[in-house]
Amino acid sequence: MRQLVIVTLLLGAAALEVLVLPRSAPFGLFPDLVLGVVLVASAVDGLRAGLVWASVGGLALDLLAAHPWGLHVLALLPAAVVGAAARRSMYRSAIVPLMGFVGLVTLTYRFLVTLLRWPGETDVWMDAAITAVLVGLLNVIAVPIVYGVIALFARVGVGRAR
């Protein structure tokens, strides 16, 4: 049940990121929802599942945004690794380290997307850096929400199975 919830969240987040949020968010700034789902899902399910979620979410973003295949998959791989590392946290849940790491993961994600998409255009890099910092702050706010949604649906699914 949890896998179905995560796939639904990934596809919905990809559709929101590509089709809705760029046209409705103020100043074009919105959290990287797919990044958040991959980060949280890998913290909940481990590295192997996180790599699968990075592939599914990245391909969904690539297909919906008409980007080269694999661009977002490569950029989301560090999120899966960091999420799995946060799973082994000293805290009771992985949400505290995820909130701490999401800024670094956002900067890495944005850097890789910019590097793979516009490697030689220097004027793009300054805008990308400013956007990455602002979106990183939004992602810190979004991680607890994504974590709560995944945890809520996982509990509902487990309750119905019994």
Architecture overview:
The protein is an all-alpha fold. The protein has one domain: Arp2/3 complex 21 kDa subunit ARPC3 (Orthogonal Bundle). It is 83% helix and 0% strand. The relative contact order is 0.16.
Layout of SSEs?
Layout lengths: L1 H23 L8 H13 L1 H19 L5 H17 L7 H23 L4 H40 L1
Helix pairs in contact: 1-2, 1-3, 1-6, 2-3, 2-4, 2-5, 2-6, 3-4, 4-5, 5-6
The coarse silhouette is: globular
Number of helices: 6
**Second CATH tier, the architecture:** Orthogonal Bundle
Mean pLDDT: 82
Radius of gyration using CA atoms only = 15 Å
Estimated share of beta-strand residues: under 5%
CATH level 1 class label: Mainly Alpha
The helix fraction, in percent, is over 70%
Distance between the termini: 12 Å
Secondary-structure-based class equals: mainly alpha
Overall number of structural domains: 1
CATH fold node name:
Arp2/3 complex 21 kDa subunit ARPC3
- E-strand count: 0
Low-confidence stretches: 158-162
Could you spell the SSE succession in H and E letters? HHHHHH
Q: Oligomeric form of this entry?
A: single chain
Characterize the biggest β-sheet.
none
Features:
0% strand, 6 helices, Arp2/3 complex 21 kDa subunit ARPC3, mainly alpha, 162 residues
What's a concise summary of this model?
It is built from 6 helices and no strands. It has helices spanning 2-24, 33-45, 47-65, 71-87, 95-117, 122-161.
